[in-house]
Amino acid sequence: MSEQEPTGAPPPPAPLLASLLQLMRLRGSPADLPDSIIVLGWLVALDALASGYLMGLIAPEQAVLPPLLLSLTLHLLLPWLLLRQLGMAHRYVQTAIAYTGVDTLLTALIAVAGSLDSGLFTTTEPVGELAVVLSLVVSVTFIWQVIAIGHIYRCALILHLIGGVLVTLGLMISQAYLGNWILGA
């Protein structure tokens, strides 16, 4: 088989990671990513690990699995419903790979920052310099996550960046509201 012929296999991790980093820099688009349900499955599994770890840091006394499963379900379902409603369902897999990959990388960064100071998410005591710096890192990372995922929706829905950011915020708020309503929190 020549190098020109497609094999149907998912791309190696390095080009996928490079494409995700480009998306985080607001360059490229979800169309640059493979249209592979296998890649999406792997990224969802990695996102589950990063999100589950972060949920454990934020609320160590609470069960992680029910809110994690609900969060992942809504994370995949709400954008699918949106794209389907707008007649753009054919863009779903690449868009889902893009936002799940970016979400995984940035959630992992927030989790690493949170694990450097065990009281970062839970303490009510006065905090030291490290906690202040880590809080700033977490805040900036979260804001950048909204902007980067907004860029992904901008590309997928053919909007301006502010439109993509508003869609992202709307989906995040809907996910939080539905999650709290379903779990009775």
Helix content: over 70%
Structural class, judged by helices and strands? mainly alpha
**How far apart lie the N and C ends?**
56 Å
Rg estimate, integer Å: 17 Å
Element string (H = helix, E = strand): HHHHHH
Shape: globular
The averaged pLDDT comes out at: 86
What is the number of strand segments? 0
Q: Which assembly state applies to the chains in this document? A: single chain
Q: List segments where confidence is low: pLDDT < 50 over at least 5 consecutive residues.
A: 1-5
For the record, the count of structural domains works out to 1
- SS strand fraction: under 5%
Number of helical stretches of at least 4 residues: 6
Largest beta-sheet details = none
Structural topology:
Blueprint: H1 13-24, H2 37-58, H3 65-85, H4 92-116, H5 129-157, H6 161-183
Helix pairs in contact: 2-3, 2-4, 3-6, 4-5, 5-6
Structural write-up:
The protein has helices at about 15-25, 35-60, 65-85, 90-115, 130-155, 160-185. The protein contains six helices and no strands. The N and C termini lie far apart (about 55 Å). The protein is globular and about 50 Å long. It has about 180 residues and is mostly helical. Helix content is about 70%, strand content about 0%. Helix 2 (about 35-60) runs parallel beside helix 4 and helix 3 packs across helix 6 (about 160-185). The protein has one domain. Residues about 1-5 have low confidence and may be disordered.
